[in-house]
Design goal:
78% of the residues lie in helices and 5% in strands. Among the domains are: 461-544; 549-676, Histidine kinase-like ATPase, C-terminal domain (Heat Shock Protein 90). The chain is mostly helical. It is elongated, with a radius of gyration of 56 Å. The protein has helices at 2-39, 47-64, 67-83, 87-99, 107-123, 127-141, 148-163, 167-184, 187-203, 207-227, 232-251, 255-271, 275-291, 295-312, 315-331, 335-352, 355-370, 376-389, 396-506, 516-543, 546-551, 553-567, 585-606, 636-642, 644-655, and strands at residues 571-577, 610-617, 622-628, 658-664, 670-676. It is built from 25 helices and five strands. Strand 4 (658-664) and strand 5 form a beta hairpin. Helix 2 packs antiparallel against helix 3 (67-83) and helix 19 (396-506) runs antiparallel to helix 20.
């Protein structure tokens, strides 16, 4: 019983230990997965580093059992090899990813993988399989026709149709792709579609049209390549266009231009290490020498191209090179080698469903065996194959239908272009009309509010002027009244006090006989009359100094300075210009009151020992500058709010339509600068 319990406990412990190990490995794998996925985002990695990291990423994905991560890892590896033209390895990884697609529901991922498989099979010449996977992607993308992938799938299908002899269908598909690429504004896609359309036009001998389409594609890719000379994708597409233009010049029997473009293609394909393109360059160069009847050079280039295609397992390349070598062997009386080469080509063409090449090879073999009387059966066999596949060769009917379709598509494209141009013009006109309408409405609103604001400002200015005039009138009335009171005090009351004193003075002799108390009363009365006269003169002076009326502003200020000096030890530096005579009583009175109030403030608060006064009158303005060396002020606004004197100063300056600036600070003295632009 104890043994059984121990066995159970041991078993539980072992299972728990294994489970912990499993969790730990899973945790490590998940962390490795995240690390390698992020590491692959580094654009500076070399190809070998990318492959190594992608394989580690794949291992981690398989350990975690995350299907999406496994598919992504295989896709990354497939794209790495596809971008480096290793179509066999790229295909192998994408097929691995395809095996997991049943376990996920994402149609976009499925479409992408099937599209890449189709591209690899096309490059390897496996047209049947290429079509099978391209159609899977096409049916998924067809649900959303306005997508970049849908346009790319159309291009892929168009190339497959062309390779399998369905030229009319190929052209229609490429035209559909071109219009979609234009609507999507996909520049690379437009270039690729132009390239493919040009290729079919070459086959139906519309050479000028073909060259125009090639030129459009070349112009786009040369501009893109100039901005990104290190892009492998752009380099690959440029190689294809150079090859196509080289082939165009071969059809025109211009070997010099043909070899110049083929040389450009060869240099670039070697630079990016694209073996498939290198093999195609060699094959096209061989075509140039074949056209010039230099069969030895042509054979060497075909054989070199064939060797690369066999290494890369590029079946269509193997087929084409064997056909071309068969022609050379036949023309150089090596019929056995010709038959062997052509049979190899036919077998592979049948395998990949290359109908056009099957028709070409079977016809050639039929003609060769027809030369041998004892090979009638073989001749008939190849004749049968030829009859079955000759419909895929270009003939007059196919050529006519392609031309008709091409013209129709071009006319439609022109109409679409005209419609787009009309729509653009209508849109532009609408925008222009709306813009003009907005400007007109905006201008009307602006003018309305501008006039309203101007009228308001005019009204406020008029109101301000009226207020200013009323204030001036009130001030004038006050000053006139003060002037009258001052004159009355001086002339009437002053004379009465003087007369009273004279009358009392007559009684002075009589006071000699009076007692001391009466004499004291008499002399106290005389003294009080003298004090009253002095006080009366001071009141009269403060109300309106007679000096201001008689001698003008300069004399009045000098009198004020004289009186201040009589009571205070303050040094004055007074300079005046333009105020020697009295010219405008009201204006000078206001200036006098301002100076009087400022000097009162200085005496009360400034503790100054030196005061500078500068007064100047010119044609255009009057300037008053008063500066002291006193204790200054910290915050002038505070004094302006509390002091009636400052309010009086500012209101009088405002009444004269002048500006006042005060510059002061603790122990820095005070400088008051007043500028008046007009007289009252």
């Amino acid at each position: 019983m104890k043994k059984r319990i121990l066995f159970i406990l041991l078993s539980i412990f072992i299972l728990l230990f294994l489970y912990i190990i499993f969790l730990f490995e899973n945790y490590v794998a998940e962390n490795q997965l995240i690390y390698h996925r992020k590491y692959l985002e580094n654009e500076t990695l070399t190809i070998d580093e990318k492959i190594e990291s992608a394989n580690l990423y794949l291992e981690s994905a398989i350990l975690t059992g995350e299907i999406n991560e496994v598919i992504n890892a295989y896709s990354i590896l497939g794209n790495i090899f596809l971008s480096n033209f290793n179509y066999q390895k790229s295909l192998a990884y994408f097929l691995k990813a395809y095996e997991y697609l049943d376990d996920i529901k994402s149609e976009k991922i499925k479409s992408d993988i099937c599209y890449k498989i189709g591209c690899n099979y096309l490059e390897l010449g496996e047209y049947v399989k290429a079509y099978e996977f391209a159609m899977i992607s096409y049916l998924i993308e067809k649900k959303e026709k306005e997508s970049k992938r849908y346009a790319e799938t159309l291009n892929l299908l168009g190339n497959i149709y062309e390779k399998t002899g369905l030229y009319t269908k190929s052209l229609a598909t490429h035209y559909e792709s071109l219009e979609l690429q234009k609507s999507l504004n996909n520049i690379k896609g437009i270039a690729n579609s132009n390239h493919n359309i040009a290729h079919i036009n070459i086959m139906i001998e519309r050479y000028n049209k073909a060259f125009n389409y090639y030129s459009k594609a070349l112009e786009i890719y040369e501009k893109l390549y100039a901005n990104s000379p290190d892009s492998i994708e752009l380099s690959t597409n440029l190689v294809k266009i150079y090859l196509s233009i080289g082939n165009y010049y071969i059809t025109q029997k211009d070997s010099i231009y043909a070899l110049s473009y083929l040389d450009l293609a060869m240099k670039m394909s070697k630079k990016i290490e694209d073996k498939s393109s290198t093999a195609q360059c060699l094959s096209y160069i061989a075509n140039v020498y074949f056209q010039c009847n230099d069969f030895i050079k042509a054979q060497n280039y075909y054989q070199e191209s064939l060797k690369i295609n066999e290494e890369e397992n590029n079946k269509i390349g193997i087929v084409v090179n064997n056909i071309n070598l068969g022609r050379i062997y036949y023309l150089t009386n090596k019929k056995r080698e010709a038959i062997e080469s052509l049979k190899n080509s036919l077998n592979i063409a049948s395998e990949i469903n290359a109908k056009r090449q099957m028709a070409e090879v079977s016809e050639f073999l039929y003609l060769i065996y027809s030369e041998y009387p004892d090979s009638i059966e073989q001749s008939n066999n190849y004749a049968t194959i030829f009859l079955e596949s000759k419909k895929y060769l270009l003939n007059e009917n196919i050529q006519d239908s392609i031309i008709q379709l091409s013209v129709k598509c071009e006319v439609t494209a022109e109409k679409n272009k005209e419609i787009s141009l009309q729509k653009y013009k209508m849109k532009t006109n609408s925008i222009l009309f709306i813009f003009i309408l907005v400007i007109v409405i905006g201008s009307a609103i602006f003018i309305y509010y501008y006039n309203k604001l101007r009228q308001k400002a005019k009204y406020e200015r008029k109101l301000s002027d009226e207020q200013r005039i009323r204030i001036k009138e009130v001030f004038n009335a006050i000053e006139q009244e003060r002037k009258r009171i001052a004159i009355d005090l001086h002339d009437s009351l002053g004379q009465m006090l003087t007369a009273t004193k004279l009358n009392l003075s007559i009684l002075e002799d009589l006071m000699e006989n009076q007692n001391q108390s009466d004499q004291k009363l008499y002399y106290d009365t005389i003294k009080m009359l003298d004090q009253s006269s002095v006080e009366l003169r001071n009141i009269s002076f403060n109300i309106l100094p007679g000096t201001l009326i008689r001698g003008g502003l300069k004399s009045a200020i000098e009198e004020v300075i004289y009186k201040i000096n009589g009571k205070n030890r303050i040094e004055f530096d007074f300079k005046s210009s333009g105020f020697d005579k009295s010219n405008n009583g009201t204006f000078e009175i206001i200036i006098y009151r301002i100076v009087q109030e400022i000097l009162n403030n200085i005496m009360k608060h400034a503790k100054a020992t030196l005061v500078k006064i500068y007064l100047s009158k010119k044609t255009e303005c009057t300037t008053l500058l008063i500066e002291d060396n006193g204790i200054g002020m910290e915050n002038i606004e505070m004094y302006m709010d509390k002091g009636l004197g400052w309010k009086s100063i500012f209101s009088r300056v405002q009444m004269l339509n002048g500006d006042i600036k005060i510059n002061t600070g603790i122990n820095k003295g005070t400088k008051i600068d007043i500028l008046i632009s007009e007289e009252v």
